[in-house]
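Course exercise 7: structure representation. Students receive a sequence record and must write out the corresponding structure in token form. The form below is the worked example handed out in class, using IS21-like element helper ATPase IstB (243 residues). Read each field label carefully; the graders check that inputs and outputs are placed in the correct fields and that the protein name is recorded exactly as given.

STUDENT ID: A-19
EXERCISE PROTEIN: IS21-like element helper ATPase IstB
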Amino acid sequence: MNKQTLEHMKQLRLYGMYRAFDSSLSPQSINYTNDELIAYLLQSEWDDRQNRKIERLTKAARFRYSAIMEAIDFDASRQLDKNQIQRFASCEFIKQKQNILITGSTGAGKSYMASAIGHQACSLGYKVMYYNTNKLFTMLKTSKADGSYLKQINKLEKQDLLIIDDFGLKALDAINRHSFMEIIEDRHGEHSIIIASQLPVEAWHEIIGEQTIADAILDRLVHNAHRIDIKGESMRKKLKNKD
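STUDENT ANSWER:
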């Protein structure tokens, strides 16, 4: 009977329940009451499905770093507001459809922080996508050539959180400026975005170019946005000196 039950669980893809029930048959297992066993099996299945969902979301996000909020360095030299950063762990900013703009010099830890917040969002069940700016715009230009542009734009629009890293390394041309405007317009008031850049926000206007479009983009981005300016020496240099 137990073997048949286990087989049925497998066929129904109740993998968490399968493993829990299999372990409950061990002589060393706890003697559950009927109610306790049902609760144990259901909780095991729930946990298994949640873990698999988080794995799928994290894999789909394609993060640059495997980062966690707990590993963010709050050394005084970085001048970070620890309370502000830790509040992001609840991902309330996503519920409120707010943005986060992270700036700082090369190696300051902008990408790691953005990825850590993104990983946390995935753990809470949010759909996240991470992109390097140049790769994002290259992908969108290619999609225009092969006719999949609208599909790619719609995919970006559906994400609860979009992370754009290394923004501002070079000025936007007309095509990229139009695509960027479309992305920001689609997300404004609907979904959150995190942008990480070496340049201060005040310099983004020049990078975007074309005053009218730059004004429209920055108005939508900066309004209702949390801003983090990381100070201090390069984290990569700091870690290298420790070795």
